[in-house]
Fold this sequence. Notes:
The chain is α+β, with helices and mostly antiparallel strands.
Amino acid sequence: MIERLPTIRELKAKGLVGENNKGYLEFVGSEKEKAKVIKAENKDRKKVYDAIAKQQGTTVKLVGQHRAIQIAKKAKPGEWLQDANGKWYQKGK
């Protein structure tokens, strides 16, 4: 996951990828640059969410939603995020 971070940051900076409200990366537009990286990252995130859910006695869905909130708080201005209703927006400055 750490090795993918520079690529993910680059895709976010280009506005191609955003963080959805489920705690996963998602393409915002039609351009799907480095789709394998995004797929691998989301697969690993699911594994992490599974482990946390088992440890805390909750659901993977709930863990992902909580993680999405944390990610949104740390997002840089201009990065794409998805609100609880599924609407995409760019984080303000």
